Recover the amino acids of this structure.
């Protein structure tokens, strides 16, 4: 698919062969904070999720794609459209690159660029948003580089350890 193909990465639908990758991602406690997860997922649940991943975004209200380097089918990360709202023409975006050695190589940047273009062109959305903890400077930098602006801070939004952490709302509104 040309729409989801970049110079060095492409985005593809999840496949049954992605079971181990998605299982590892969902059970990686180091990224639970960004995915609002606090419990592990079984292989059984991941398999069921993958079996239903074929659902249309209008039905499921979300779309999860694997991020792959060109000429390689193996996923290096995941990128999501979530809370898809076709009535108000908006959706949330999320991205995670699994291994630290694949970060800071432009993979996330190119994947986000492809998904923004897809969301505005193919899905005809008017705006996109991302929820980011203010101290997640790599994510703040990634999204602001694409024109997302911080439009608000949700105070004490997420439970973190024995306290609470703020969460910032970043928005990108499609320009005519």
């Amino acid at each position: 698919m040309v729409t989801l193909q970049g110079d060095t990465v492409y985005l593809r639908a999840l496949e049954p062969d992605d079971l181990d990758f998605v299982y590892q991602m969902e059970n990686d406690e180091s990224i639970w904070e960004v995915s609002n997860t606090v419990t592990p997922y079984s292989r059984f649940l991941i398999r069921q999720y993958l079996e239903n991943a074929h659902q249309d975004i209008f039905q499921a209200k979300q779309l999860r794609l694997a991020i792959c380097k060109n000429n390689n089918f193996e996923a290096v990360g995941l990128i999501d459209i979530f809370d898809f709202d076709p009535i108000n023409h908006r959706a949330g975006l999320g991205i995670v690159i699994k291994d630290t050695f694949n970060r800071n190589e432009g993979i996330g940047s190119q994947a986000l660029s492809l998904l923004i273009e897809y969301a505005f062109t193919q899905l005809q959305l008017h705006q996109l948003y991302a929820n980011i903890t203010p101290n997640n400077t790599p994510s703040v930098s990634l999204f602001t580089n694409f024109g997302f602006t911080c439009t608000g801070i949700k105070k004490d939004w997420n439970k973190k350890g024995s306290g609470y952490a703020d969460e910032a709302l970043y928005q990108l509104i499609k320009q005519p």
About this structure: The mean pLDDT is 88. The longest helix spans residues 107-121. The helical segments are 19-26, 32-35, 43-51, 57-60, 107-121, 137-144.
